[in-house]
Amino acid sequence: MGALGGLLLFLGGLLAGVYIVPAGSQAVVFRLGRVLSVENQGLHFKIPGMDAVEIVNTERLRRFEFGYRTVLPGEDPQFRDEPVESKMLTSDNKIVEVNWVLQFQISDPVHYVTRMPLGDRATEKLIRDMAESVLRKVLASRTMDEVLTTGKEAIQGQTRQDVQKVLTDLQAGVRVVAVQLQDVNPPATVQSAFSEVNSARAEKERLQLEAQQFANELIPQAEGEAQRITNEAEAYSFRVVQVAQGEVARIRALAPMYAQNASLVKNTLWLENMKDVWPRLKVAILDAPAASGAQSFLMLDVNGLLKQLETQGKEGGERP
Question: How many Å apart are CA 14 and CA 10, to the nearest integer?
């Protein structure tokens, strides 16, 4: 009987020294109050009465909700508001209601077990109070418009970074995975006014976009027209300058001839210039000999001659 009792006692002690670490977890082994080792998943042994084991799930993604609580999860979830947590103050002294989520994992089981308060409830309260304080500080540095419109991504990023810094300084053994702002709204009493402001802002952005599109279409056309006019002006300038230079060269070439017979050169230039004028004048040029026998040109005003003949015809018709 004594041998059997000893065997049972031995087997009981042996079984008391066996423990299993499940998948996704790690075990922190203490011996006489000091950390001895960290064991991964599997079957392990400890010395009963001397060793203590704390098993920590290091792969589970933990999720803390702020501003609300999920009462009934599933396809049709039910929520409960937590207004004390959700109401926060912005830099322009306006209240916004923020529902958000903090997601984290245990990255160092030794620090988590030794540095954080004992008990899940105490640990949750510490992390909740610290994270809420960080977000309130971040929102207090931004205006209401930023919080409700364009600043969401920046707020999430800064909050995640600041929460992680505090946890790292505390050596909490916690890694922040994400900070997600679920709903950010003004108080219900001003919700309708804010909706009107949002509608006006959207209409303004739409009109600005249409104006920009019109400008994008009009400016290239105007620039093309300006370039065409510039090219035509440059071509005209080049043509006029070339013609003028040609005339200057021609006149300079006449200088020796002018020195020999100025009258001939003058008459020649006069005739060349008048050839553009004569077609617009109703004149007749006659080659008639002068009294001295030299050739001369007579110009008759055809219009005046016709009027004179017409007048004479009328006067002749009136005579009896």
Answer: 6
- Determine the 3-state secondary structure of 47 from DSSP: coil
Q: Does residue 97 contact residue 186 with C-beta atoms inside 8 Å?
A: yes
Helix axes 191-260, 262-274, angle to 10 degrees: 140
Q: How many CB atoms lie within 10 A of CB 162?
A: 19
pLDDT at 158: 95
Given this model, what pLDDT does residue 171 score? 93
Q: Do β-strands 283-289 and 295-301 pair in parallel, antiparallel, or remain unpaired? A: antiparallel
Q: Exposed, middle or buried by CB within 10 Å (0-12, 13-18, 19+), for 215?
A: exposed
Eight-state DSSP code of residue 279: G
What integer pLDDT is reported at residue 283 of this predicted model? 59
User: Which residue stretches of the chain have pLDDT < 50?
Assistant: 319-320
First to last CA, the chain: 185
State the alpha helices, DSSP H only, in the chain: 2-16, 83-86, 109-115, 120-139, 144-148, 152-169, 191-260, 262-274, 302-318
Whole-angstrom distance, CA of residue 61 vs CA of residue 32:
31
Distances 213 to 133, 201, 210, 226, 243 between C-alpha atoms, Å: 45, 18, 5, 20, 46
Distance (Å, rounded) from C-alpha 142 to C-alpha 159?
13
Decide: residue 106, CB within 10 A, 0-12 exposed, 13-18 middle, 19+ buried.
buried
* Rounded Cα gap, residues 123 and 125, in angstroms: 5
197 Cβ partners below 8 Å, 6+ apart?
A: none
Tokens 């309260």 — which residue?
Answer: 125
Whether the model pTM is above 0.90: no
